[in-house]
Amino acid sequence: MPIASITPAHRLARAAIVALGAILLSTTAQAQDGGIAVGTHAPSAAVRSLDGKPVDLAGVVGTGPAVLEFWATWCPNCKELEPTMAAAAKKYGERVRFVTVAVAINESIERVRKHVAVHPLGGAVVYDADGNAASAYDAPATSFVVVIDRTGRVVYTGVGGTQDIDAAIHKAI
Fold first, then answer.
1. Could you read off the pLDDT of 70-115 as tens digits, one per residue?
2. pTM metric for this prediction
3. Which of 135, 114, 116, 132 is nearest to 124 (CA)?
4. By C-alpha distance, which of 129, 134, 130, 131 is closest to 144?
């Protein structure tokens, strides 16, 4: 359509479409698959080290940017996400803390220990024996990833085997 024939109604319609697109993009960028709300301060939770000792998840996460993954040995999405998480740990391991939270659903600490011995995961691995971490982070499923920035705020959550962990980490650093 030639510029001269664009009416005020066309301009208004285009402006509305652009505004709607911006709203949808912003909603998509902040959308969550459930879980702890983005912007929330990351909570602590009682978990166990793989040798069975009680630890506070906040102490494992530490200060600074961190990536938590709620994981299980039997989880196909977790298995699909492993190469992405390994690449991120290799790329950002000096600046970002990686913590795998092994859930206790159909899982034992012994099974997690054996799996990690054969298939090492990047970063720290803890066992959520009583579901404290899953509850505190409102984890909707395994392969649930939470990215925390240096101020302790959640900047990303997602579920599934095809998450863009690199982009999520950029929100934290």
1. 999 999 999 999 999 999 999 998 999 999 999 999 999 999 999 9
2. 0.79
3. 116
4. 134
